[in-house]
Amino acid sequence: MTLKASVVWSGVWVGLALLFNAFLWFYLMQNYALKVANEKALEFFTAYLVEETLSMDNVFVFLVIFKYFAIPINFQRRLLLFGVLGAIALRLVFISMGIWLIHRFDWVFYIFGLLLIYSAIRIFAFHDGEQSLSDNLILRGLRRIFPLTESIASQTFWVKKNKRYYLTPLFIVLIFVEISDLIFAMDSIPAVFGITNDPFIAFTSNVFAVLGLRAMYFILATMHERFLLLKYGLAFILCFIGAKMLLHHVVDISIFITLAIITLTLFTSIALSKLIHVDVHKD
C-alpha cells in the first residue's frame, strides 16, 4: 500500500467513524432528547480519538516486530488484517469484562486509574533505543516447542517438509502482533472507561479505531521519525484519564473538557515534534 493510498484509506475510516457518530446523534435526538444525543456523541468522539491516538503507540511496536523478522511489505498487509480481526475480538471480550466489573465493583475504577498512571510513568521513563527481540522469552519458547523455518517463501503460516510441519516466521509475527495488541488493550480499554460506561459506545469507538489501524500503519511506517514527542503526549493523556478516574467522586470533569484537553495535548505533541524534526534537519 502506497503512502497516498494509506492517507486516502485513513481518511475513509475517519469519515465513516464521523458518519456513524452523526447517525448516532440523529437517532438519539429523534428517540430520546437533544441532551442525551449531545452527550453520547461527545462520548463516542472522545473515546474514538483516544483509541486512535493510543493505537499509534501500538503501530510503533508493529514496526519493530516487522523490522526484526524482515517481513516484506506485501506480507505485512495480511498480518495486519489478521491483527485487526484479532484486536476486535479481544476488545469485545475486554470491554464486556470491564463493564461487568465496573457495575459490580465500584473500586475497579480506582484500579483502572492506577493502571493508566503506571502506564504513563512507564512511557515517560522509557528511553528510546534500538529494540531487539532476539532474547524475547516468547520467541525462545516457541523455538523450543515448534520447528521453525528461517525463510519466508510464501504467505502461509506453516510449510510441510520431509513429512513434518514447520511454522514460518509469519506465524511467529502474528503471535507477537496479537500479544502486543493484548498488552496495549490493557491501557486503551481502561482509558475508554474513563470516558464512558456505555458498552455500545465503548465497543463501537474501539472498532472504528481498530479498523483504521491498518492504513495508519503504512503512514507511520514512513513518517514515524517525525513524531518524536508523540509518546509523551500519549503518556499525558493516559495520566490525565487515570487521574480523572481516581478523582471521579471528588471532581466531575465534563466530557467536553476531557475532549478539549485530549485534543490540545495531541495537537501540541504533534506540532512540537514537527518543529524538532525541522530543526534537526536544518542542523
TrEMBL record:
The chain crosses the membrane at residues 7-28, 48-70, 79-101, 107-125, 165-185, 200-220, 227-247, 253-272. It is a multi-pass membrane protein. It is found in: Membrane. The keyword Membrane applies. Keywords: Membrane, Transmembrane, Transmembrane helix. One of its GO terms (cellular component) is membrane. Belongs to the TerC family. This is Integral membrane protein, TerC family. It comes from Legionella oakridgensis ATCC 33761 = DSM 21215.
